[in-house]
Each structure stands twice: as C-alpha cells, then as structure tokens.
Specification:
single chain, 190 residues, alpha+beta, 4-stranded mixed β-sheet, 4-stranded antiparallel β-sheet
Length: 190
C-alpha cells in the first residue's frame, strides 16, 4: 500500500503556490495620471496635483491682463500670505484650494522658470509658488477662463490674479508689485 503523504504534500504545495500567485496578482495594479488632463467641475473643490514631473504653469489673457494658469484655470495670490509661506488653511483652503505639485513645476510660454518654487504645507504637501507667492485656485471658478475670484476680500484680505512678472493684477490691466506701486492702470495697491 502506498502512503498518501508525498501526494498530499505535493497537492498542498501546488495549492499554496497558486494562492500566492493569485494574491500577488490581486495586489498589483497601476494607475497613471496625466498633468495635462482638464479638471472636472468637481475638481474645483480639491487642490490639483501632478506627477513627479510637476504641474505645468502657463498664461491666459483676460480683462485684468495676462495671468498665470494651471490646467487652464486661473491662479491667484493672497495678500495675507508672507513670501514663501501660506496662511490659508482649513475653510480658506476649501474655498481657495492651493496649487499642489509632487515635482518641480514646469514653466510654459511667458512663465519665468526661475520664479517657480515649492513650499511645504502643514501635512507635507508641496504648494507651488511664483515669485515667492503661494498659488491658489478659486473654487468658484468652474472652468478655464473664469476669474470670479479676482479682487475678492475672502478670509480678510484681497485675492488677485498673478501676472507673469509675479505681480498682483489689481485692476483692469493693472499690476502691483510687492512694494505696492501700481505698474499700469489703476486699482488698489498690493
């Protein structure tokens, strides 16, 4: 009479190998995202991130002048921020989602590559800066070309579109630099 032990061990080993391969297959999935995808309207409530290559910053032209964009959406600075530091968190960051990037931001067109930077927010996310200003979207801007946040007093200080020079666009064609001097047009000083 033959012993069933060697056959049982081989069956158990084969079953174990099959389970191991099945488990490994279940655990491996990959997803890819593109920094060039157009955000959906629901994305206005969340911060935009990009892959390791970083988010692309470009420009658009509107009534206030030429301003910075990411994925076609307007970018703003908040005068309550200090250079290289964001003071917008909690409900402020829900209304004004910070522009986040997992890698070095990329300059497109008239955007100055040397003006782009990153700061680390509480929690470890990296927010894009331009000329030292942390950059934000406005949740009320539902699509590319919308600039409804321009001149808002939300959360106790002004929000302005950002010119390619790094200055705040404070009125129709006006850009005010950090010193508050208006470079063209009229409008409140930054």
């Amino acid at each position: 009479m033959s012993t069933p032990a060697p056959r049982l061990r081989r069956s158990a080993l084969a079953a174990l190998t099959g389970l191991t391969l099945a488990a490994a297959g279940c655990g491996s999935s990959s997803s890819h995202s593109s920094a060039t995808s157009t955000p959906s309207p629901s994305a206005t409530r969340t911060a935009t991130t990009a892959g390791a290559t970083g988010v692309a910053i470009a420009t658009a032209h509107g009534a206030a002048g030429t301003y910075l964009t990411a994925s076609g959406r307007a970018l703003y600075l908040w005068v309550a921020d200090s250079r290289g530091h964001s003071n917008c968190s909690g409900s402020c960051a829900q209304a004004w989602p910070p522009l986040l990037s997992q890698g070095r931001p990329v300059a497109i067109g008239a955007v100055a590559p040397g003006s782009l930077g990153l700061i680390t927010r509480a929690g470890g996310a990296h927010q894009v800066t331009y000329a030292g200003h942390p950059l934000y979207f406005f949740a009320g801007d539902q699509h590319a070309g919308t600039t409804t946040g321009q001149g808002s007093d939300g959360f106790g200080a002004k929000w302005w579109l950002v010119a390619p020079t790094g200055a705040a666009l404070t009125g129709a064609g006006a850009a005010a630099g950090p010193s508050g001097a208006t470079t063209s047009g009229s409008g409140p000083a930054y």
